[in-house]
Structures are given as structure tokens and as C-alpha cells.
Automatic annotation (TrEMBL), chain A:
It is found in: Membrane. Its cofactor is FAD. The chain crosses the membrane at residues 24-44, 64-83, 104-126, 142-162, 174-195, 207-225. This is Unannotated protein. Residues 1-21 are annotated as: Disordered. One of its GO terms (molecular function) is metal ion binding. Its main location: membrane. One of its GO terms (cellular component) is membrane. Residues 231-331 form the FAD-binding FR-type domain.
From TrEMBL, chain B:
It comes from freshwater metagenome. This is Unannotated protein. The lineage of its organism: unclassified sequences, metagenomes, ecological metagenomes.
Amino acid sequence: MTRPATASAVSQARPLPSPKESRVLDTDVGAIIGALTLVVVGLWSRHGGVAALGDSAAKTYTSLAQLTGLLCSEAGILGLILVTRTPLVERRYGLDRMFNWHRLLGEAMAIFLALHIAFSIAAWAIPDGTMNAIQSLTGKEPYMALTTVGSVIVLIVTISSLKWFRNKLSYEMWYFVHLTAYFGLAASFSHQIVLGTDFADDALARGFWVGIHLALVVWLIWSRWGRLVVAVARPLRVTAVTHEAQGVTSVVLSGTHLRKAKALGGQFYLVRQMVKGRWWQTNPFSLSAQPTNAGLRFTVKSRGESSNAFTNIALGTRVIVEGPYGVCTPDVVNSEKVLLVAGGVGIGPVVSFLEQLGSEHEPIILYRATSEKEVAHINELEALATARNGKVHTLVGPRATLKVADPFSPEVLLKVVPDLAQRAVIVAGPESMVKAVQRGAKAAGVPVENIHAERAWW
Amino acid sequence: MVNVSQKPTLGRQIFPAVALTVVGVGFISLLDNPAGGVVSLEGATGAVVPSSVAANTTLAPSPTSSIIVPTEVPTTLAPVPTLAVEGAGSCDGDVVTGPTAMFKWGSLQLQATFTKKNVLCSVTVLNYPNEKDKSARINQSALPVYNREAVEAGSAQIAVVSGATDSWRAYTAGLQAILDAHPA
């Protein structure tokens, strides 16, 4: 489906204001993680955890089971804080990094859980024998049957999210398995309060532990699911679908709700197409034009069922967007000149970023595409660059046909951009290209804090 | 949002860490500390029953350590182990009833029997916290261990059983009161 964009709507558009900045610092995040760890380990130690370590084998195992159990919970708590997608963290680090940390915390949680189970069985096996210990810990003791189910769910969720496994599962399968993690965590909670000594015997510790979990549940509902409810209440509609290049389509979403929206070029939204069979699923799509009250434009490459459906979406379809997310925005640039590097569909965020830059940045754009047919927004790009005292360089063709082995080696980069070291570098594109540019720019003398990367979200 | 032009002050960077550490340490220090729990002893150590009387009232011919099970407790309680303590001699000395040790989970009271040579010979638990299932379960498994260890050690210097630290505290305090009142 190919339709021209409604130019009239765009011409009267007023750019959306910037989202509020986060005041959170790296040191704040460190302080919170450090304090939580301090309290968890201190609680364990205060209840005799350290003293028990040198004691009999049973006591040592019990103590280690308690410590690993507590650390497992801590990883879970931190992982769930990331699920809230709180702007405090998101506006500072970006959703992609939050997803990454969530995954790492999930893996840490699974390791602590495995250790916790192993130490618990070892501790109970000393007086009772292994089989009796397993029986007690999977059903006989209060709440342990529920906890066993919860632990199995948590382990399945973690395993299903390992890269190797994740690639073998369909998104639907993985998503619904992942949703059961909420139940798994809830099911495991009761045994923490009833069994063991850390919380069962100490009212203050129990109050703290229950309180922190209740607060987390409230925060999750408020922030994660509340945000979804708000997004559902403010749907947008597809107002333009334009074929841009082979397999590349731009879609404009508009609606009255945009009047109150805030967003910046370079950001992305989680887009939910309200179409039969797709409404439960979101895709991250990057803005490919400065976001305005007239509309949000996304440039999407069709490369999966879902993005394919989006490139063929009918005009007028209801679309729910959550966001904006992402921290690779013009705010990262101070007064220095700018080099923008786009790879493939990474051109989208680069265009929207460029549109919000002033001419003092004299932007140079490197646009890498594997084929002439896949080059999108090139006229727009050149017009924007020219208006800002900038230049566009394109590098088109499959890698094997290029004259240089690595188009982003420091030598090549410096030849094209002699003042590279004085520039801020913005990269959007496939993972491998982002890495190559980061490496090359660093070697060419660009300080690491001046290199900003954003994954190409379609 | 990374904005190099607004570099936060050192104070702003350090303050949250310091504040949260202080709060965390303060919280931990308020938590229950098994090594420093409070046991209050109520009631005087009972009169020393002379050995001649004790010999008449002690029915058990061999050294026995038993838990007296209150009537309201279900009959599924663990059987009381009988202890034979080698080398302790026969329990035909004084019988001393200790004070009631009040602690977090209730009260614990001990009665000790000595040999003629004033060596601790057996310990009987007169009452212990059993209102909650969990308390009853913990004490039924730990108290016989404490009884045995006390008789073996001949003193209140006994090791704690994991999970029964509070009972250990009350037990050692109660037993020490008996030993203090009955010098060897």
C-alpha cells in the first residue's frame, strides 16, 4: 500500500516539547544498589549468618541457603524495578540498556536460585537424608509446594530468555512464558516469610521485606500497567503510509492526543497495532522525523511478521503508542560539531535527530546501505544537511564490493571527516555496524563520552 | 540524559550514598540480634529439695531427661527421648526448680537434678513455648538436645541448635540460675 504523505498537515506542525530530564546520577543508582545489598547482607549477618559459616556443615549450608535466597530476591527486586520502565531510569539510561540489565539480573537471579535450592537441600539432608529433604522442601513444609512451582517457573523463564533458546522460540511463546514470571515470583514469596529465620522471627525485618515488595507491586501497577492504560486511552490513527525504498515504508500516526505529548528526535515508541491478532504485541519503532503535534513518523523495514503488518497497515487504523523512550537525542550534544552515522533503516532516527540540530553543529552524515534500492529519505537528508551547513556521504553496496575492508576504520573516517576528534558521534544501525563505528571513532580520538549509539529499532 | 555542561557537584554525587548507608546501618542495628537477645528471669530459684526427700519423690531409676507435655498440646508431639548419661552416677541428689525465663516466644522453666556429689545429673523442662505450632516444633526438637548437652557438659556452656537460638538463650539463662543457686 503506497500513499503520499499529507504535506499540509506537516507544514503547520509545531515540534513537540522535550520530555523532562531525569536527575538520577550513576552514583544514585550505585547508592541504591549498594544500600539494598548492605541491608540484605547485613540482615543475614545480624541474624547470625556469618557466625554460622564456620560452624557445623548443616549450619553452614543453612546460612549459605539464606544468603543466596536473599540475594536471589534482591536481583528479582532490581529486575522488577527495571520492568516499571520508570522515567527516572529510562530518561537517563534508555530502555535498551534497561532491557539488557533486566536480562543480566534475571540470569543472576537464576544462578542464586539454583544455589539456594542446592544449599537448602544439603542443609536439610544432613539430619533427614536427601530424599526426605527433597520431600520436605517440595511439599511437606508449609508453602513449599507453591514455592516449588514458583521456582520452576522462574527457572523456565530464565532459560527461555537465554539468547540461544530465545532465538528458537517464537515471540508469542517467549512473551507468554515471560509473563508467568510474575506468578512465579509471587508464589515464591510466602515461604520467605514463613520459613527460615530471617523474616519469620524478626518483625522489623519482616515489615521491611513485606513493605519493599508491596511498594514494588504498587510501583509496577502504577508505572508499567498504568502507563499502558493511559496509552490505550490516547490512541493515534494512521494518517499516511509511504513507500520509501525497497522493503522500507514510512507510517505517520496522528491524533488530538499529540497536543500534550513530549518527544525528541532520535527517540522511539513501543507501537501496538490495534489489528486482530496483533493488539497484544508491541514493536519498538524509531521516529524518522521531528515529532510534531501534527504527527509522528516512523520508518520501518519489513523484516518480520509484525513489522510487515505495520508496513501494510490501513489508513485510519487505531495504533497505541507507549513512549517515547531512548536517550540518544539532540540533548546529548552540547556545542560541538556532529557526525551522524546511519546504517540501513537506522536512517530513521538519524533524520529525526538531524532535524532538531542547529547549523552550528555543521552535521556530517555517513549513510551506509547494502543496496541502492534500500536507500530511503535521501532527498530529505540532503536538504536538511544543506540547510545546516552540513554534508551527506553515502556508501552503498554489499560489503564485499567496497574498496576498503572496513569503511569505519579510523583512517577512512578521518579522511572523510578530518575534524572527527572534535565532533560528537551519533550512530544508529545494526549492532555490528554500531560496534565498528564505536571502535573506529574511539581509535580516531573521539572521547568515549562523545560517542552515542542507538540500536536501530526497525 | 547526559548533559556534560551541568556537571553535578561532588556533594550531590556523594550525599545519596552516605544517606542510604546511614539509614541501612541504622536499620540493621535495630534488627533482632540472636547474640544479644533479652531473657528475663522471673521468680526465685526454687528451694533446694533435700536429697532424702528427692530420693523418695524421684520415680525414675535411671537418669531421665523429659519434656513435660501440657495437656492442651495435640498428641502428635514428638516422643520424649530418654537419656542415659554415662559416668554421671545416679540421680539421688538435690532437685532444684529454676526461675521462669521469659523471652520473645514465651516462657521456659527448668528443673535440675544432681547426684550426691552435686554433679548435674538430669534436666527436666517444666514448660516451654508451645502456643504456636512452629514454637512447639522447634522446641521439641531442640530442648532434648540442650538437655543432653547440659548433662554431658555438666554446665550451661552448651552449643546452640540452628533455628532455636532464642530457646537456647532462655535455656542457658535458666540453667545458669539453677547452677548459681546450687554451688557444686
